[in-house]
Amino acid sequence: MEPLTPALVLAGAVVVALNAYVVLAGADFGGGVWDLFATGPRRERQRDLIAHAIGPVWEANHVWLILVVVLLFTCFPPVFSRIAIALHIPITLILLGIVLRGSAFTFRSYGGDDAPTQRRWGRLFATASLVTPLLLGVGVGTIAAGRVRAPTGAGFLVDYVTPWLSLFTASVGVLTLLLFAFLAAVYLTLEAEDPDVQDDFRRRALGSGLAVFLAAMLTLALAWREAPLVWNGLVTAPRAIPVHLLTGASATLALWALWTRKFRLARSAAVAQITLILWGWALAQYPWLIPPSLGISNAAAPAITLKLTLGALAVGAAVLFPSLYYLFKVFKSPPR
Amino acid sequence: MTDLLAARAQMALSLGFHILFAVVGIGMPLLMVIAERRWLSTQDPIDLELAKRWCKGTAILFAVGAVSGTVLSFELGLLWPGFMDVAGPIIGMPFSLEGFAFFTEAIFLGVYLYGWDRISPRAHLWAGILVAVSGAISGVFVVIANAWMNTPTGFDLVNGLPADIDPIGAIFNPAALQQTLHMTLAAYAATGFAVAGIHAFLLLRDPLNAFHRRALTIGILVGAPAALLQPLSGDLSAQNVARYQPAKLAAMEALFTTQAGAPLVIGGLPDMENREVKFGLEIPYGLSLLAYHDPRATVQGLDSIPRADWPHVPTVHLAFQIMVGIGSLMALVALWSLSVLLRRQELATRPLLLKAIAGCAPVGFLAIEAGWTVTEVGRQPWIIHGVLRTSQAVTPMPGLVYTMLGFSLLYIFLGIVVAYLLYAQILRSPRHEEWHRVYSPRSA
User: Of A13, A17, A37, A211, whose CB is crowded by the most CB atoms within 10 A?
Assistant: First the structure.
């Protein structure tokens, strides 16, 4: 490993923020997916549980994505501008999805109580929850495959559409969606107080967990063809093996814990699994931020900016973590 | 429509939409904290009901503000990648601090919303205070970044590229203090008067309703002092603009010719071709007095600026007139209301005053939109004043007019829904019979 430079720490902070976004907001998206696929006699009780678990303030989870954006444009400005140009269309659609999802959820919580109004907002919320993670994954896949390039002027399709349209990027999109759905189902087994609803989400968690496994295999196979850099990093690099073993172990543990109804253990294992997948990708393309041209050292902002941003992160963390701890304590405490 | 114009329109729309929610996110928590503080000492259920309703309203608007703010952070790059390349390392830090302040606001709003029966009343009040404080701080950080676009400092230009970067120097840019002060006061004035105005309107039909009376008083307590201070803060801003952004000042005042003892032009239609103002009312020496506090001072006109670097003068001039006109009106209504309150008399028994306050409900937000039009259109053709042109910063992606139209439809749709929800949630009178006619005013 390289020495721990400010640029490396900040690139790590980008992945940490992305990690927090995936674990927290990812589950919110997944909740929307299960709202869309709520079935059976307990359909409405499932939806109520999802709505209760999310709560409108949690649109604030997008702050982790904002932190990723801010860290990129402050500390690695060419990376941000190149992604913003090449992935203009998918990012615009992601934004539409985020706006419609958050607004529809709030409007459903505070809008009219009549069934048609509720259903209309619910459907919008759920559809946006389905499309947005797909596109987020497509964006990640495009970066990982080394397909984000400066515009060549060869035409609209070549510069702005074909880079993010491929089997590999689509498979990363599906994998992301399934991971978010899996994560949400696992969380919801713990939120549910009604044993029947808990069982519904246990079955959904097991099913989506298996689907995650299949999608991950498919993605890996396509990486061999389309994303050689990631393939090499994931399969042949020596540091990849322990990450793989740990990812596989936590995935198996999550499924076993679900099967044996150890839901707390399942939650920890699922969080570990998605975290390891994310870090596996980050390590696979290290030291590139946008392979194969923009890396941690050649895209970094001047040293003074990096140092001050590290300071700002430290101050922010010192305010944020005690506040978050307090929030969770308040939520766990019983009503007086 | 060119791509540049489409990108500017989309950015204007997104900012114009988000600013409304950002302002409410700064102002409403203060109202809700005041109501709760009153409840703690009076135990009057009206105060508790107000705190709870305002908190619910804040939650609805906060969620919409959070998602529209997420959109903005991306749009900076989607539309202006050239700008972020240059500005990111210099002025990115306030944005990261803003992220933390915003998140703190969200966390304590969560505690406030769900903590009514879980934490002690004192702790609950403090959660509300933290929501109000962090909301104000996050606004300050964003406005600092905008002030830097107007008066960029904290770097040297070497071959047109910034070198020797000093992010701290960028934060303390010359317009930072004036702009943050002006915007924070605007947020309290607009929100306070919006709430006061809504309840004043309802009191016109139901003048004995104690619930609306209390809401009106608290709204005035927040809005009126801010509206009274706002002209003073505007004066500080104008002097700052005169010194650092002469083209913007000349466009605001439609001053085409550099002159000593410059007059103040009120109203009128600036004609950029013939370099004159038609139908304007001139107050001799007015502009020199306002900009430099000296009737003989020389004020730079647009003739001192190359024609290619002029902003669109009629837009800036008109927006400036709207902002100043509304600000002056609100200051007068504020003075009137406060003089009634200070004599310990009832606001609710004065129909004329109620009508004036009700009229102020929407206009504070109009003034804010106009003010942002002045500062943003007035800086054109620059995105970073004197450093980078807006046309150099725009994305090479073609077809921006379609995304612009898409976002326009989205924001119109959201605006209608939010308005309806607020009507349903906040405005309708509570149905507690005892709060009607709960006490009879002296005049009845």
Answer: A17
> Within chain A, which residues score under 70 in pLDDT?
1-2, 55-60, 111-113, 336
User: Which residue, among A66, A118, A258, has the nearest Cα to B138 in the 3D structure?
Assistant: A66
Span B394-434, pLDDT tens digits: 988 888 888 888 888 888 888 888 888 777 766 565 555 54
The pLDDT of residue B16: 92
d(CA B233, CA B226): 10
Q: What secondary structure letter does DSSP report for B309?
A: G
What are the start-end ranges of the H helices in B282-423? 286-292, 313-342, 351-377, 390-393, 400-422
Cα separation, B30 vs B218, in Å, equals 10
Q: Do B69 and A55 touch (CB under 8 A)?
A: no
State how far the Cα of B324 lies from the Cα of B327, in Å rounded to an integer: 5
Chain segment B222-260, per-residue pLDDT in tens: 999 999 999 999 999 999 999 999 999 999 988 898 998
Chain B residues touching A57 at Cβ < 8 A: 59, 62-63, 106, 109-110, 113
Coil, strand, or helix at residue B412? helix
Nearest 5°: phi and psi at A16?
Answer: -60, -45
Query: Is residue B299 within a helix (H) or strand (E), and if so which, with residue range?
Result: strand B298-299
Beta-bridged to residue B389, according to DSSP, are: B382
**Region B19-43 average pLDDT:** 92
Quick one: which of B217, B185, B161 has its CA closest to B354?
B217
The residues that bridge with B259 in the sheet, in sequence order, are B299
Q: Which residue has the tokens 């013939």?
A: B274
Best residue in A89, A103, A129 to probe B by mutation, most B CBs within 10 Å? A103
Chain A residues whose beta carbon lies within 8 Å of the beta carbon of residue B409:
none
Helix pair B45-79, B3-42: axis angle to 10 deg: 160
Nearest to B93 among A159, A308, A336 (CB): A308
What are the residue ranges spanned by the domains of chain A?
6-304
Name the E strands within A252-332.
Answer: 288-290, 294-295
The DSSP result for B125-149, as a single string, is HHHHHHHHHHHHHHHHHHHHHHHHH
**B361: CB partners within 8 A, 6+ apart:** B193, B194, B196, B197, B198, B200, B201
Token readout for B224 is 């009126």
Looking at domain A6-304, its CATH class is mainly alpha
Place of tokens 């920890």: A268
- Phi then psi dihedrals of residue B305, to 5 deg: -115, 135
Q: How many beta-carbon pairs below 8 A join chains A and B?
A: 209
Q: Which residues of A110-122 are buried (b: 16+ CB within 10 A; e: fewer)?
A: bbeeeeeebeebb
Burial A273-298 (b: 16+ CB within 10 A, else e): bbbbbbbbbbbbbbebbbbebbbbee
DSSP A2: -
CA distance B18 to B68: 6
- B43 at the A interface (CB within 8 A)? no
Flag if B73 and A100 touch (Cβ within 8 Å): no
Neighbours of A3 (CB within 10 A): 5
pLDDT in tens, B137-159: 999 999 999 999 999 998 888 88
Structure tokens at B144: 């600092």
Mutation for A interface: B13, B18, B24, B84, most A CBs within 10 A: B84
CB B439 within 8 A of CB B45: no
CB within 8 Å of B51: residues ≥ 6 apart: B32, B33, B35, B36, B39, B128
Contact A88 B395 (CB under 8 A): yes
